[in-house]
């Protein structure tokens, strides 16, 4: 098996989120919506503004942005996973100035926008720089780009993620929080953006605590979001039941030790002007 092409990588990611869409953000875990609102608090859409929301998922940032711009503004939300697009269309009927389309975040639609925003998406893109250059091109003078991404992982969970992927071949073990290159630190991200001519680059961060009831709930949540990638790989190789048993034991120990199961996600929201 050779190195996958950018198109194959994107199709793989879109497939996972397409299969996750029905339960994405629907399993009783507060995560994507608060992070989406955090992003919108940073991009600050005003009535009448034009917003492009790429990799919109089920609308965690697109819907609050649409509420903020109101009927004199517009939000165009795109996602590569058709089932995500359908879910947003189904739930956003009361906001006719929100348009949702299948689309690649690396190939934003033509048009001029006051805001381009991307919630927990950019680290999936095979070519971040292609995307960033195109966003600059689409922004009105003084327009702003805002995006969220993961910071430091919760080290308490390393044994859990390690136990889950232990039987997978090394090349198949996906890290929990993609953190290479510009995503390795806030300083690296700021250098990267400034080097490409973005101005007024700033980042605010929060630590969001995800709470799950028990091991079953953690697995249910994992199937409903990007970590599904790993579970599907285990399932395809017939390794899921063994991994489930190993992880279940670790989670029970963790719950007993910590008085419940919580996962702390550090999330950065970076803002820049084009
Ligand atoms: C972690 S989810 C975040 C979704 C949403 N922004 C939120 O905050 O809930 C990542 C989303 O990015 C989408 N995605 C990944 N790669 C993409 C690409 N190249 N173009 C468009 N969407 C993409 C996935 O389908 C998925 O819906």
Q: Describe it for me?
A:
The chain has a domain at 6-152 and 177-210 and 266-273: 3-Layer(aba) Sandwich (Rossmann fold), CATH 3.40.50.150. It has ten helices and seven strands. The termini are far apart. By secondary structure, it is of the alpha/beta class. It has a seven-stranded mixed beta sheet with strand order 3-2-1-4-5-7-6. The mean pLDDT is 95. α6 runs antiparallel to α10 (240-258). The structure holds S-adenosylmethionine. Residues 10, 13-14, 17, 32, 35-36, 54-57, 60-61, 79-81, 84, 104-106, 119-121, 124-125, 226 line the site of S-adenosylmethionine.
Features:
single chain; 274 residues; alpha/beta; Rossmann fold; globular; binds S-adenosylmethionine
Helices and strands in order, then pairings?
Elements: H1 6-20, H2 32-43, E1 50-54, H3 62-69, E2 74-79, H4 82-91, E3 98-102, E4 113-119, H5 128-138, E5 139-150, H6 158-165, H7 186-195, E6 199-212, H8 215-223, H9 228-236, H10 240-258, E7 261-273
Parallel strand pairs: 1-2, 1-4, 2-3, 4-5
Antiparallel strand pairs: 5-7, 6-7
S-adenosylmethionine binds next to helix 1 and helix 2.
């Amino acid at each position: 098996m050779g190195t996958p092409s950018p198109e194959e990588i994107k199709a793989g990611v879109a497939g996972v989120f397409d299969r996750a869409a029905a339960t994405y953000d629907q399993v009783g875990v507060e995560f994507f919506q608060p992070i989406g609102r955090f992003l919108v608090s940073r991009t600050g859409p005003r009535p009448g503004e034009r917003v492009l929301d790429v990799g919109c998922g089920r609308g965690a940032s697109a819907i609050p942005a649409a509420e903020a711009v109101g009927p004199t503004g517009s939000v165009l939300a795109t996602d590569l996973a058709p089932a995500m697009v359908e879910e947003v269309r189904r739930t956003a009927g009361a906001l006719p100035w929100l348009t949702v389309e299948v689309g690649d975040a690396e190939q934003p639609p033509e048009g001029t926008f006051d805001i381009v925003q991307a919630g927990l998406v950019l680290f999936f893109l095979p070519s971040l720089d292609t995307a960033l250059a195109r966003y600059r091109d689409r922004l009105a003078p003084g327009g702003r780009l805002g995006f969220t991404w993961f910071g430091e992982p919760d080290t308490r969970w390393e044994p859990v993620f390690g136990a889950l992927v232990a039987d997978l071949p090394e090349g198949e073990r996906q890290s929990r929080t993609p953190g290479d290159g510009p995503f390795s630190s806030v300083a690296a991200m700021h250098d990267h953006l400034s080097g490409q001519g973005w101005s007024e680059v700033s980042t605010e961060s929060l630590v969001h605590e995800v709470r799950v009831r028990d091991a079953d709930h953690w697995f249910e949540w994992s199937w409903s979001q990007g970590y599904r990638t790993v579970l599907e790989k285990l399932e395809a190789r017939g390794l899921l039941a063994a991994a489930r048993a190993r992880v279940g034991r670790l989670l029970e120990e963790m719950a007993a030790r910590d008085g419940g199961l919580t996962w702390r996600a550090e999330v950065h929201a970076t803002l820049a002007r084009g």
